[in-house]
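Data deposition worksheet. Section B asks for the primary sequence of the deposited chain exactly as it was used as input, without tags or linkers unless they were present during the calculation. Section C holds the resulting structure in token form. Section D is free text for depositor observations; keep each observation to a single sentence. Incomplete worksheets are returned to the depositor.
Section A, Depositor: J.P.
Section B:
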Amino acid sequence: MPDTAMLQRLRDTLGEAGVLTDPERLAPYLVDHRDLVRGKAPAVLRPSSVAQVQAIMRLAAEYRVGIVPQAGNTSYCAGATPDASGGQFVLSLERLDKVREVDPLDAAISVDSGVILQRAQEAAAAAGLYLPLSLGSEGSCRIGGVIGTNAGGLSVLRYGMTRDLVLGLEVVLADGTLVSDMKKLRKNNTGYDIRQNFIGAEGTLGVVTGAVLKLIPVPLRRATAWVELAAGAPLPEMLALVRRESSDLVSSFEFITARSLALVAGADGRLKSGSGGVILVELSSSSQHLPIEELLEGVMGEVVEAGWAEDVIIAQTEAQRADMWRIRETIPEGEKHFGGSVKHDISVPLGRTVDFLAAGGAAVAAYDPALELSVYGHVGDGNLHYNVLVPPGEDRLAFTDRIGRELAPALYDIAIGMGGTFSAEHGVGRLKRGLLQHYADPGRYRVLRGIKGLFDPHGVMNPGAMVDPAEGLIAD
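Section C:
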């Protein structure tokens, strides 16, 4: 447990508002987003400046105490939850919440890491620009967590993952050292690209306190289609066609199964599933002159002519488009209302998505043919959210544990065998640490351990998450 002298020094540094110890106020910070993991902490630390973050880390290094950075606490892998020892502090970024600058000429926004993603989007929009990070949790997730998990979302196909949008970072290291590289440069070939070490590191190497993010012109026109898929429709070939014939203006290419659609309350009765599910495809452009509506109509005509779609509905109004996206974005909520799901964040090469759907379905049926799947996701970038619904009447936590032990390994083996991975965009955290050990290439895992040991030699940064320098690979 932390020394009482350390707690007092933290209070002296952060003030009473910066150190929460009341059990009631601590509670929301100690449970993960999916209510699978509950931890303990002597206090939640709430710094309001970068200097205070540095002071926290110096004390943590001195006392050898674990610090768990936490942004919006929306991790699906318990990456921001302390362990049960009661010896780790939570460092909340919520008071580091300033938009520092929006630069229209450099098309960049500089923010504190505690800024909520939606607020950053709004600040960019106020300057006539667009932040192309779009997540279901954008109203609550914070920039630090988005960077820490290298978040993906709905527009990866067009704009890339978070790491593709980060121009500069400001990070406090485990010993309190400040690394400030808040440049807006698109080209900067001056040695190792240090910032990339911290993107996707889940707070295991340092505390991200600020970021410069790339902006783009605001999409003024969008064309959106709801495609009722025919059985056996070749999704990779369809995506290739749509990208080619639209001059790669595709910003989203989302897959929804009939079962996932049925989970959404109040779904428009006209928006049905085909026998092969649904593709929600959207083109976008910042130009007022490009006729993307006509372009989408022409492309969808080719999709129907190829026999890949039973019907296509092209949104005629913004309200109709919004309803299409509401259905897609509320599937996780629908799963929750049903009773929950066991989530598998699968990624495979684009050409193997249909193969995985077939092989994964066969593996689930062989395990228990009564199980129901909710499958949807960003097939445009090879990412499938392959979720097993909790059967009515079963305890969610017990079912999650059983599926994790007995069925998930088979699904991950299939994905790995196809050149894929067990974590496309949710990260590793605490829940998938064993999977990283098991599936990692030995050379790559050695590098991961080495980087962790270099940046955090005393193991104070988010201990228990992702990787431990003392661990080797799990024996087969």
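Section D:
The first strand starts at residue 19 and ends at 20.
The first helix runs from residue 4 to 14.
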